[in-house]
Amino acid sequence: MSKCIGCGVILQNKDKNKVGYTPKEKITNNMYCERCFKINNYNTKFITKLDNINSYIISNINKKAKYVLFLIDYLNISTETINTYHQIKVKKSLVISKLDIIPKSINKEKLINFLKTNYNIQDEIFFQSTKKNLNTLSLINYLETNNIKEVYILGYANSGKSNLINKINGIYNDKVNKVTTSSIPNTTIDFIKIKVNDNLTIIDSPGFVYENTIYQSNEYDLIERINPKKFLKPRTFQTKKNTSFLIEDRIRIDANSLNSFTFYISNELDIKRVFNNNSLLEENTISLDILNNSDLVIKGLGFINIKKPCTIKVYAKDINLFEVRKSHF
Ligand SMILES: Nc1nc2c(ncn2[C@@H]2O[C@H](COP(=O)(O)OP(=O)(O)O)[C@@H](O)[C@H]2O)c(=O)[nH]1
Ligand SMILES: [Mg+2]
Questions:
Q1: What is the extent of the structural domain holding 303?
Q2: Does some domain include residue 33?
Q3: pLDDT, tens digit, for every residue of 268-308?
Q4: In the structure, what pLDDT confidence band is assigned to residue 325 with cuts at 50, 70 and 90?
Q5: Atom 6 of ligand 1, residue of closest alpha carbon
Q6: For the chain, what is the domain count?
Q7: Are 167 and 309 part of one and the same domain?
Q8: For ligand 1, atom 7, which residue shows the shortest CA distance?
Q9: Which-ligand-closest: CA of 69?
Q10: In the sheet that 91-97 helps form, which strands lie side by side, from edge to edge?
């Protein structure tokens, strides 16, 4: 059975509406499916639904893999992503990807300590950027030094797996069949084995998906903007008792105190500060107690650093989006 070299799906020419379709009469090795062809050549956007993908990935990895590099970008560090990381039972390292978006003010040593103590990470932690080509070679060196010949690249959708793989493959080979990359989640459908050279095989994987987020909509424009392109500019606002924030008019946060809120979310997302307005969004509400210097994590988006203790109210369609943690700075 031939697989698409872009997304790993088994190729078929029977059903146009199912994944893996190719209009070609003859299916051969080394082919892209129609969906990958359109993403690669026309930048077409597709939302692909993959059922039970998280447990599919974990059970396969725990059976087959010997070593895993798990990518999480700075804005997606949360109990949900790290719990998934902890479910991987084979030898693994954590890669904080998209290093280029992390504001210069963030102290990396402190961040590493935070990951170790707050999230109980005991493995090696790397920082890496494919876009700016930072630390990609040191990752490769680590694999060589530790005699790791086969590595599975895992991570949530959009953490940068496929771009990293194309980068590494491109370092060793002039002409590469690129795996398909896009800013829309679920582009990679199944595991794809890529033999980089005699000493290194890399396996791309479908991304883990958040259980409940905006990502599962077909709002391409929003999904594009959630994904930070440049380094983050933290946005700080002072608040009073009657101050509220609206993120993209769909998440509301009532500050309820004299305080300071700094947003670490993509620069392209809209934040409005409003006063005395209680009728903006009346969806699910919860109250959250914030301790001194804590973060309100909004899963899939980033986090808000809140300086002083307070009780805030949050409103959103999906109330499971939020969690509170101690800050790492
Ligand atoms: N800023 C930045 N963006 C990146 C980097 N690597 C990937 N991206 C972007 O993140 C999105 C998802 O990348 P992709 O490699 O397809 O992620 P995957 O879903 O994990 O395979 C794309 O829009 C990429 O351009 C990086 O190092 N820095
Ligand atoms: Mg991918």
A1: 235-326
A2: no
A3: 999 999 997 666 566 678 899 999 999 999 999 999 999 99
A4: very high
A5: 160
A6: 2
A7: no
A8: 160
A9: 1
A10: 125-127, 91-97, 67-73, 150-155, 200-204, 192-197
